[in-house]
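Question: does this match?
>
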Amino acid sequence: MINFNYETDFNLDNEEAIAFWLSNVITSENKKEGEINYIFCDDEYLHKINLEYLNHDTLTDIISFDYTMGNELSGDVFVSVERVKDNAVDFNVPFEDELKRVLVHGVLHYCGYKDKGEDDELLMRSKEDEKLALFHVER
């Protein structure tokens, strides 16, 4: 089950379509969907988590806590809406596209993809692009 929680005034317009897409991403990686919680917040909220749990004194767009057991993906994904908005401007892409990239990034981490080294980062970007192409909003 994919859940969306809000610690800021932001709200997803299309929760159902996003959840459906993320479920398809999980299936496409031959994984099972456990409980994945997305928590949308601001920079300050995520910075505190980054300091407290990871000992990093930096701003970031996403922090994911992985509770995956075997093939069943579960975890908490914290997303700074402020960072995503800034990154969308920096990368010259629509906010909605950058947000989807961040959302799928968390799931891909749970699938075992990393992004610390150059090769891992290239593979992660490729997987993000592949999974973004799966997104279709049902009308």
Q: What stands out?
A: Residues 71 and 138 are 28 Å apart (CA to CA). The first helix runs from residue 15 to 28. The mean pLDDT is 93. The first strand starts at residue 2 and ends at 6.
